[in-house]
Amino acid sequence: MSIKNLSLLLLANLPAPVFACAICMTGDPTLNTMGTEKLYEGRLRFSVDYLNRTETTGVAGVDETKLKDNRLTLGLAYAPTRRLNLAIRVPVLSKTFDTADLSRTKSSGIGDVDLSARYTLWLDDEHHPTQLFGILAGLRTPTGREQFDSKGNSLDIDVQRGTGSWIPNLGAWYGYYHYPYFFYASSVYHQPIDKGFQEFKAGKALVSTFLAQYALNYQFALQFGLDTRWSTKNTQMGETDQNSGGFIAFVTPGLVYHVSEDVLLNLSLQIPAYKNLHGEHSEGNSLRLGVTYDF
C-alpha cells in the first residue's frame, strides 16, 4: 500500500538580444494531477497546485533580467480503465519581469493548457502488482493569449502567459510499490513543432524525475526526489538565445499528508544541485504546494 500523493529582453542601447523562457520546468507535472498510486477504474481526481519560482538571465548591471513566476494550476484526471489515466491541467499565471533599466512588466491570466495521458503497459501481477511500467504522452496547447503593452507592443516572451506554439511530449514511467516504500521514475521528451509569438521557438527538452517515498504511518510520508532537465537553445526572430538551454538538476525534498480518505496535501521544495546551463542563466528554488481530492 502506498500513500498518494509540480528572456526576450531587447534594450534599445544594447547591440544583441537577451531572451530566455523555461518552457519545460523541471519535474513530472503528472505526479499530483494523476497521482502515483495504483489506478482503479472510474477514479476522478481534482487537484490544485501552487508554484513559486524565479529565474535570472544576463549580466548584473548590464542586461540582467529577473522573472518571478507564481502560478496556480487546476487539474482534472479521469481513469476510464485501471490502465489508462487522462488529464487536463489549466494554469493561472501571475508573472513579474524586471530589467536592467529598472522597468517592470507584469502579466496575469490563463496560460497554456496541458493535455496528458498515462498508460500502464506492464504489471508484474494482475491482481496485486508491486511493479508497473508504462508510457506518458501529452500536448501543450497555445491557449495563453499574447499580451501587449499600452502602446500595442508585444510583451517580452518571458512574461507572456504562453508561447503561442504547440508542444507535444512523449515518455516512459516506472513505479515500484512495497509499503512503506515507494519508488517512481519518469523521463519525458518535449518537441516544439512550430513557432509562436514573436517567432519564438523553444528548444527541445528531456525532463526526468526520480522519486523515493517512505511512509512514516498511514497519514505522513517523506519524499526525496531528483529532477533534471536537458534542453537545446531557444530561438527567436532568427536569433539563437545564447543564455538558454543546457542541463540542470534539482534535489527535491517533500512531505505528503493524508488528510482523509479522499484528500491529500503535498509540499516540496526544488533546490538547484547542479547546473551546466548555457550563457548567463540561473534558476532559483521552486516551492510547490498541492491539494488533491478524489471523487
Rg result: 20 Å
What's the end-to-end separation, in Å?
Answer: 20 Å
Mean pLDDT, rounded to whole units? 87
CATH architecture term? Beta Barrel
Report the total helices.
1
Name of the top-level CATH class? Mainly Beta
The CATH topology comes to: Lipocalin
Fourth-level CATH superfamily? Autotransporter beta-domain
Give the helix/strand class: mainly beta
Number of strand elements: 17
Strand content: over 45%
Q: Please give the order of strands in the largest beta sheet.
A: 1-2-3-5-6-7-8-10-11-14-15-17
Order of secondary-structure elements: HEEEEEEEEEEEEEEEEE
- Which stretches are poorly predicted, pLDDT < 50 over at least 5 residues? 1-22
Q: What's the structural domain tally?
A: 1
Mind summarizing the main beta sheet?
12 strands, antiparallel, barrel
Shape annotation: globular
Report the helical percentage.
under 10%
